[in-house]
UniProtKB/TrEMBL annotation:
PANTHER family: NUCLEAR TRANSPORT FACTOR 2 (NTF2) FAMILY PROTEIN. It comes from the Bacteria. Residues 18-146 form the SnoaL-like domain. Gene3D superfamilies: 3.10.450.50. InterPro entries: NTF2-like_dom_sf (IPR032710), SnoaL-like (IPR037401). This is SnoaL-like domain-containing protein. It holds the Pfam family SnoaL_3. SUPFAM superfamilies: NTF2-like. It comes from Streptomyces pratensis (strain ATCC 33331 / IAF-45CD).
Amino acid sequence: MSAARDDHEEAAADIAAVEQANTAFYEAMERGDLDGLSDLWLPGEDLTVSCVHPGWPVLTGRGEVLRSYALIMANTEYIQFFLTDVGVAMTGDTALVTCTENILSGGPAEEGSSLGPLVGQLVVATNVFRRTPDGWKLWSHHGSPVLAETGEEEDEEPTV
């Protein structure tokens, strides 16, 4: 087997492992599994982790980031992610995943209902992973809302 083929197979295995780590991140959110989610982030404070939730300021440090997820999980009755446009780029021990999060979420149930009102949202996300002895771990997550299109051109002159 040639060295080029070995390199290609190793790169494909790394990409698959990063895709699995990315999927595990969203699955932990869907389950409301804070311990599972915590295991997916870089441990310690060697490389300061960061997170930007849509509309939030930058959160830095493992403790602050994990507290934000605990808050979200405590206040979200239901959440499901449908990921589209997933792309993975790698260099050395760092991987960059970009995707569109098609989110369906719901708050507390209303009286007489088992689930609160569901809301759909589009968020584009960038997840940065680092290779560790324990596999690929999240270093940074940045989610930005996709603004809905109104169908009207804003710079059009109104007609009289």
